[in-house]
Amino acid sequence: AQKITQTQPGMFVQEKEAVTLDCTYDTSDQSYGLFWYKQPSSGEMIFLIYQGSYDEQNATEGRYSLNFQKARKSANLVISASQLGDSAMYFCAMRPYGGATNKLIFGTGTLLAVQP
Amino acid sequence: NAGVTQTPKFQVLKTGQSMTLQCAQDMNHEYMSWYRQDPGMGLRLIHYSVGAGITDQGEVPNGYNVSRSTTEDFPLRLLSAAPSQTSVYFCASYPGQGNGYTFGSGTRLTVV
Predict the structure, then answer these.
(1) Does B34 contact chain A (CB < 8 Å)?
(2) What is the pairing mode between strands A10-14 and A110-115?
(3) Tell me: the pLDDT tens digits for B33-91?
(4) How far apart are CA A75 and CA A93, in angstroms?
(5) Rounded Cα–Cα distance for residues B64 and B8 (Å)
(6) Can you tell me the distance from the alpha carbon of A61 to that of A73, in angstroms, rounded to the nearest whole number?
(7) Which residues of chain A are within 8 Å of residue B44 when distances are taken between CB atoms?
(8) Which residue in A12, A84, B47, B74 could disulfide with B66, CB within 3.0 to 4.6 Å?
(9) What does residue A27 show for φ and ψ, rounded to 5 degrees?
């Protein structure tokens, strides 16, 4: 079965500290992509970062980095120097490249609250 | 660039009513999809299309119909709304390669 698991329903972090949001995945496909999206209270889905299964280096985008451990099937999101505007729901998603659906499989999300 | 445009943003329906959620994209993406978001369940795929004239079912297709007559438009139809269809609906498009999924702003639907 293809599945994304996010075990942290909610997280708190102090402003300016780093936080790690956990994501594990399950797929039998050899080729896949891993995504993180941010959903603020306004509701839109904002793309943050992408990691391909064959990428040798961990992806980074500004304050976001993806800690990709292929053998453990984990793709944790690290946010450095948290800001109040980082308070949002965060979704991990996977796109298996086998088949033609191009579908994204989402986890249940982690609600992050950044405290001043 | 407008990206992916969803209308309406909010809708209240009575049980048994029908309606169409509209989705349009201006990026010439071949792939379009509809997801629903429910509390504690993330986003789940309802229907998807890999090009004009081609649609298929996703994970939770029951109660929904789609069609894709043009590359730009991918409407989602609820033929007889049920309270279980109360949800937030997202349309997304994708060019078929790379990581460029684009989501619409969502439609919040309440069925009473």
Answers:
(1) no
(2) parallel
(3) 999 999 888 899 999 999 999 999 999 999 999 999 999 999 999 999 999 999 999 99
(4) 10
(5) 17
(6) 21
(7) 106
(8) B47
(9) -160, 150
Alpha carbons within 13 A on the beta-carbon side of B109 = 32
Distance between B79 CA and the closest CA of chain A, angstroms: 24
Chain B neighbors of A104, CB-CB under 8 A: 33, 35, 43, 45, 92, 101
Q: In whole angstroms, give the CA distance from residue B32 to residue B30.
A: 7
pLDDT tens for residues A43-70? 999 999 999 999 989 999 999 999 999 9
Mutation choice for B interface testing from A104, A105, A108, A111 by most B CBs within 10 A: A104
DSSP string, A68-82: EETTTTEEEEEE-S-
Report how many Cβ contacts below 8 Å link chain A to chain B: 51
Closest-CA residue in chain A for B88?
A43
Q: Cα A66–A88–A15 angle (5° rounding)? A: 80
